[in-house]
Specification:
Elements lengths: L2 H4 L4 H8 L4 E5 L5 H10 L6 E5 L20 E9 L7 H20 L4 E3 L3 E4 L2 E13 L2 E11 L24 H16 L7 H7 L7 E4 L3 E8 L5 E5 L4 E4 L6 E3 L3
Parallel strand pairs: 1-2
Antiparallel strand pairs: 2-3, 3-7, 4-5, 5-6, 6-7, 8-9, 8-12, 9-10, 10-11
Helix pairs in contact: 2-5, 4-5, 4-6
Length: 257
């Protein structure tokens, strides 16, 4: 399949599809859309902007991980939102972004993804999308950066993530513009409602973690029983007690028996 068959991201079409006062810029290649967003905020950006790239040479993920970003095969974007809430609200924004990806992908492709606490979305047992949410300060101004990476048509992955990463439509002719538009519209709509927590209903319902045995912390094993309104994962330990995991630097792994 040729790159021309896949089609490129269309800046004008995306801007018109989003249908609001949001600047849109598309790079052919960049180190990272999140890194570029940070540079722009520090240089004085004070308006909502969507930054996309056809490929990334240093795509960033949570807790220092990278995000594989082959050209024309995925969606790599960061939404910059000025005057956002404080950093301790980042879980809520991350959860809203996960719900936006779930809804946008389903609306544009018919594919239903599962949400893995705290910031990943899966197709079956393979990770298809990830979210990186940051709060950046420049002087007295703060901006929220919501980075989203989605594997769309990728059919080959590096050896270290082969079998762990997957794509929505591997090797198919899929319109990435429609997915971008659907996801960003959902995200912008959710960000307009800071006090509305109804998105958590979808976040919990589509969770692939709740009800599963997980490995977390320093070799601890427990069963995820729910997610509270503050975004903490509720875990029942082997001894019967309950722990509440914060989303900060905690990583979990689902145990398949």
């Amino acid at each position: 399949m040729s790159f021309m068959k896949i089609g490129k991201l269309d800046e004008k079409r995306i801007r018109e599809g989003i249908g609001c006062e949001t600047d849109v810029t598309v790079f052919d290649e960049i180190d990272s859309t999140s890194t570029e967003a940070r540079r722009r905020v520090q240089a004085g950006l004070d308006r909502t902007m969507l930054i996309l790239s056809e490929s990334q040479t240093a795509g960033r993920g949570r807790i220092g991980h990278s995000f594989y970003s082959p050209k024309y095969e995925g969606i790599y974007m960061t939404l910059v939102c000025p005057e956002s809430g404080p950093g301790d609200e980042l879980f809520r924004v991350t959860a809203k972004a996960a719900v936006a990806v779930y809804r946008g992908v389903k609306a544009s492709t018919g594919i239903s993804l599962g949400i893995k606490w705290v910031n990943d979305l899966y197709l079956g047992k393979e990770k298809a999308a990830g979210i990186l949410t940051e709060c950046v300060a420049a002087g007295e101004k703060r901006c929220l950066l919501v980075g989203i990476g989605i594997n769309v048509t990728t059919s080959r992955f590096p050896e270290d993530i082969a079998g762990k990463a997957g794509a929505l439509c591997p090797g198919e002719n899929t319109d990435r513009n429609e997915i971008v538009i659907a996801v960003v519209r959902e995200l912008l709509e959710e960000l307009k409602k800071p006090e509305d927590v109804s998105y958590l209903e979808t976040y919990r319902r589509e969770s692939i973690v709740i009800g599963r045995e997980i490995l977390y912390g320093e070799g601890k094993i427990g069963t995820a029983t729910g997610i509270d309104d503050e975004g903490r994962l509720l875990v029942r330990t082997a001894g019967g007690s309950e722990e509440r995991l914060n989303s900060g630097e905690i990583r979990i792994r689902i145990i398949d028996r």
